[in-house]
Amino acid sequence: LRESLAQAEAAVRSDPSDGQSWCESGGVSLGILGVSPLPQERVDPSAAANPDLHLNRATLLQYLERFQAALEGLSRAAELAPGWEEPKKRHRNLLEFLSRLCGLLANRVLGGTGRDWEGLGGAG
After folding, report:
1. pTM of the model
2. Residue 32 and residue 101: Cα distance in Å, rounded?
3. Is residue 124 part of a domain?
4. Domain membership flag for residue 15
5. 3-class DSSP state for residue 83?
6. So what's the pLDDT on residue 56?
7. Is residue 98 over pLDDT 70?
8. How many domains does one find in the chain?
């Protein structure tokens, strides 16, 4: 993976405007999980239409716990490739995870009292 990343980074350095090189670099980075997501679609407009790019970035954003951006990326990947089920499935799974997480947090904050958020001054 590290050799692949070195080659992908070399390709990006040789032509920083090549969106495909950015996409490959991002995919390898996902394998290593040590590189922050980059706004590749701003570098090469053709990369903005690549559903793999959005799926890869969304996956990395999810690991970084940037859930709103991850959901947006998964939605964009699904829009770009309507027949591809993977981004739709991941979007559903992330929403389910966040829903369960919110329920657990609410129960913990409320101490299992069954009260709703409005009892804490929230909007529900």
Report:
1. 0.59
2. 26
3. no
4. no
5. coil
6. 84
7. yes
8. 1
CATH code at position 87? 1.25.40.10
CB-based contact 74:55 (threshold 8 Å): yes
**Cα dihedral sign, 76-81-87-88:** positive
Residue (of 22, 17, 16) closest to 8 by Cα position: 22
Q: Which of 3-12, 39-48, 91-100, 110-119 has the highest mean pLDDT?
A: 91-100
On whether the CB atoms of residues 65 and 98 are closer than 8 A, the answer is: no
DSSP conformation class of 42? G
pLDDT digits (tens, 9 = 90+) for 57-71: 888 888 878 899 999
| The pLDDT value given to residue 34 | 47
Alpha helices in the chain (DSSP H): 2-14, 19-32, 51-63, 67-80, 85-110
Q: For residue 1, tell me if it sits in a domain.
A: no
Segments forming the whole domain that contains residue 73: 31-108
Hey, is 29 helix, strand or coil?
Answer: helix
From the list 6, 34, 42, the residue with the least C-alpha distance to 24 is 6
pLDDT score for 19:
67
49 in a domain, yes or no? Answer: yes
